[in-house]
Amino acid sequence: MIIWLNGTFGAGKTTTSKELATIVPKARIFDSEQVGYMLRHVLESVPVKDFQDWRPWRALVVETATQILGYVGGVLVVPQSVLVEQYWTELSAGFAAAGIPVRHFVLHTDQDTLTRRIESDTVETGARQWRLDHLTAYESARPWLSRTAETIDTTNLPPDRVAHAIASAVLP
Asked: Would you tell me which CATH number, out of the four given (3.30.70.1150, 3.40.50.300, 3.20.20.30, 1.20.58.100), belongs to the domain 2-170?
């Protein structure tokens, strides 16, 4: 199974994924951004705003996850914002074709809290403006995200409680 944590930057995906990996049996984190980093040197001649815009990124995320699960089994927790509906459709169709169930969660936080979290983050300080610039894209994606994912409001919940809510939803 894949537990995909979606939502905008600052909603708590990374921290929640670390918590989930400790409470869901046989869970491991799959950072799909690493696939994008791998492709950068190969596809640098194809300029994009985001590596998700490269079709090979989407196909390789599906293939890599499929290979990992086929090799070690268990659960992959993927903390990755996907804010373009077509890209999510391609990813989820690829997982379905591979026979991999996906539980798609959106970690949602109100905009004031998101802005406060991003501006006070001491870990990803170099990406602060980039993260703030993506708040509008997230708001635009919310209608389709609400149709394709289970939304968890993280505004007043610490990551461990968010992780436990997700674990309760996915575990028998």
From this structure: 3.40.50.300
Helix (H) or strand (E) holding 148: helix 135-148
Q: Which of 9, 5, 8 has the alpha carbon at shortest distance from 139?
A: 8
pLDDT by residue (tens digit) across 27-73?
Answer: 999 999 999 999 999 999 999 989 999 999 999 999 999 999 999 99
Which contiguous run of DSSP H or E holds residue 64? helix 55-72
CA gap 99, 114 in Å, rounded? 35
Model confidence pTM above 0.90: yes
**Which among 87, 116, 127 has a CA at the least distance from the CA of 6?**
87
3-class SS at 162?
helix
Residue linked to tokens 């074709």 = 97
